[in-house]
Design goal:
The complex is a heterodimer of chains A (about 250) and B (about 160). With about 250 residues, chain A is mainly alpha-helical. Chain A contains nine helices and no strands. Chain A has one domain. In chain A, helix 5 packs antiparallel against helix 6. The longest helix of chain A is centred in the first third of the chain and has 33 residues. Chain A is globular, with a radius of gyration of 20 Å. Chain B has about 160 residues and is of the alpha+beta class. Helices cover about 35% and strands about 25% of the residues of chain B. Chain B has a five-stranded mixed beta barrel with strand order 1-3-4-6-5. The longest helix of chain B is centred in the first third of the chain and has 27 residues. Chain B is extended, with a radius of gyration of 24 Å. The termini of chain B are far apart. Classes of the chains: A mainly alpha (about 250), B alpha+beta (about 160). At the A-B interface, helix 3 and helix 7 of A face helix 1, strand 6 and helix 4 of B.
C-alpha cells in the first residue's frame, strides 16, 4: 500500500501506468455509457406522472453525481499536496478542475431544462440549486487561482487550501434536500434503502453513472499526461520520449 | 509516517473540523432563511409572517380543488397532514399540478388567513414509476377498499 503510494511520487512512473490504463477506461466507459443512454432514452418505460420528460434524469443524475465525486477526489488530492507535498496530487487537481466545472454546468443546465416543464420555473434559489451553483463557482475559483500564481509550489498550496475550504459545500449539497424545505426532491437513490424507482429505470441509470466514471478516469489520465509532459519538459526522460536518440 | 507530515495532517484535520462547525452553526442560525417555504403547520401556528410575501408548500388535499367556471381562478387546500391552508390562484397551473401532488406557492396571507398566490410551482417527489405499474397499484388499492367495504356488514 505505502509502496504504491510512494511510487505515485514519480511522474515518470505514473505517465507509463496511465498510458496502459487509458484504452481500457475509454472503451469500457464508452460502451457502458452508450448502452445506458440508449436504453434509458429509448427503451426504459416512461414515468406515470411526468411522461417522457423524466428521461433527462439519465444525463442529469450522472453529471451531478460525478460533479460532486470529482470534488471529493480533488479534496483528497489536496490533503496529499499539503501533507506529503506530492507533485502528482497537484497535477490531478489542476487537470480535473475544468472537467468538474463542465459536469457541474451540465447538471445545472439539464436541471433547468427539466425544471421548466415539471416545476414551472427554470431556476429557484432553493438550497440544492444554490449550493450546486456555489460548487460551479468553486471550480471556477480553483481554475483561476491555479492559473494566477506562476510559481508551481505556492500555486499548488494555495489551490489545495481553496479546494479543502470548499469541500464543506459537498455535505451541504448532499443533505440540503433533507435539512431544509426545498423545491428539489429528495434523493431517489439511498445507500441503505431500495431506490424509489423500478429496476428497468435505475439499471440504465447505473450503467451511465459507471460509464461516466470510467470516461472521467480516461479524461483525467489524458489531461494529467499532458500536464506531466509540460512540467517535466526539461527532464531527460521527457526529452528522449518526445525525440528518441536516433532522430535527434 | 514522518512526524512532520503527521503534524501537518493533524493541523489540516483540526482546521477542517473547525470550519465545518463554523459553517454548521451559521447555516443552523440561518435555517429560516435557507428553507424555501413554510409548511401549513408553521402557518397555522403563526410562525409565518402575515403581511409579507412568503412561500408556502405542501400537498394539495384530495377533493379540495375548485375551479371558477368564468375565470382562471382556482382555490385549493394545501396540507402537511397536520394542518392545512386554503390558497387562491389566478392563472395557468403547471402540468404536474394535481390533487395529491406537492406544490410550492408564493404569495401573501390576507386577513382571513386565505393565501393569495401569485406563483404556483409543482414539487415533484423522488418516486418514479411506469404508467402500467401505477395503474395496477391503483386497481389493487381499489380492490382492497371494496373488499373492506363489503366486509363491514358482517360485523
Amino acid at each position: 500500500m505505502w509502496q504504491f503510494f510512494h511510487k505515485l511520487g514519480s511522474p515518470k512512473w505514473f505517465y507509463g501506468i496511465a498510458g496502459r490504463w487509458m484504452p481500457w477506461l475509454l472503451w469500457s466507459g464508452l460502451v457502458l455509457a452508450l448502452v445506458g443512454i440508449v436504453w434509458g432514452l429509448a427503451f426504459a418505460p416512461k414515468d406515470y406522472l411526468q411522461g417522457n420528460s423524466y428521461r433527462i434524469i439519465f444525463i442529469h443524475v450522472p453529471t451531478a453525481f460525478l460533479a460532486q465525486s470529482v470534488y471529493i477526489m480533488m479534496a483528497s488530492a489536496a490533503i496529499v499536496t499539503l501533507v506529503w507535498r506530492m507533485k502528482l496530487a497537484d497535477v490531478f487537481v489542476k487537470s480535473v478542475a475544468p472537467v468538474g466545472a463542465v459536469l457541474t454546468f451540465l447538471a445545472l443546465f439539464t436541471g433547468a431544462v427539466w425544471g421548466k416543464p415539471t416545476w414551472g420555473t427554470w431556476w429557484i434559489w432553493d438550497a440544492r440549486l444554490t449550493s450546486m451553483l456555489i460548487l460551479l463557482f468553486l471550480y471556477f475559483g480553483v481554475i483561476a487561482l491555479g492559473a494566477a500564481i506562476s510559481d508551481e509550489k505556492s500555486s499548488a498550496r494555495a489551490v489545495a487550501v481553496l479546494v479543502l475550504v470548499g469541500a464543506v459545500n459537498i455535505p451541504i449539497i448532499k443533505y440540503s434536500v433533507e435539512w431544509w424545505n426545498t423545491l428539489h426532491q429528495p434523493a431517489t437513490f439511498k445507500l441503505t434503502e431500495k431506490p424509489s424507482m423500478p429496476v428497468e429505470m435505475w439499471l440504465p441509470l447505473l450503467l451511465v453513472v459507471l460509464g461516466l466514471y470510467l470516461l472521467f478516469g480516461w479524461l483525467a489520465f489524458v489531461r494529467m499526461q499532458t500536464e506531466i509532459l509540460y512540467r517535466e519538459r526539461k527532464t531527460h526522460w521527457v526529452k528522449t520520449l518526445i525525440r528518441p536518440e536516433g532522430a535527434a | 509516517m514522518h512526524p512532520k507530515r503527521k503534524k501537518r495532517l493533524t493541523l489540516i484535520l483540526f482546521l477542517m473540523a473547525g470550519l465545518s462547525i463554523a459553517i454548521g452553526l451559521t447555516t443552523y442560525a440561518l435555517r429560516q432563511n435557507i428553507s424555501l417555504f413554510y409548511d401549513p403547520s408553521q402557518i397555522a401556528s403563526g410562525e409565518a409572517p402575515g403581511d409579507v410575501r412568503i412561500r408556502a408548500g405542501g400537498m394539495v388535499e384530495e377533493g379540495s380543488v375548485q375551479r371558477d367556471p368564468d375565470s382562471l381562478r382556482v382555490t385549493f387546500r394545501v396540507t402537511d397532514f397536520e394542518s392545512s391552508v386554503t390558497m387562491e390562484y389566478t392563472g395557468i397551473l403547471p402540468d404536474l399540478f394535481a390533487e395529491g401532488q406537492g406544490v410550492v406557492a408564493t404569495g401573501r396571507l390576507n386577513g382571513d388567513r386565505l393565501f393569495v398566490a401569485d406563483q404556483v410551482l409543482a414539487k415533484h417527489d423522488e418516486n418514479y414509476m411506469p404508467p402500467e405499474v401505477m395503474d395496477s397499484l391503483e386497481k389493487a388499492a381499489a380492490r382492497a377498499e371494496s373488499n373492506t367495504a363489503q366486509s363491514i356488514p358482517e360485523y
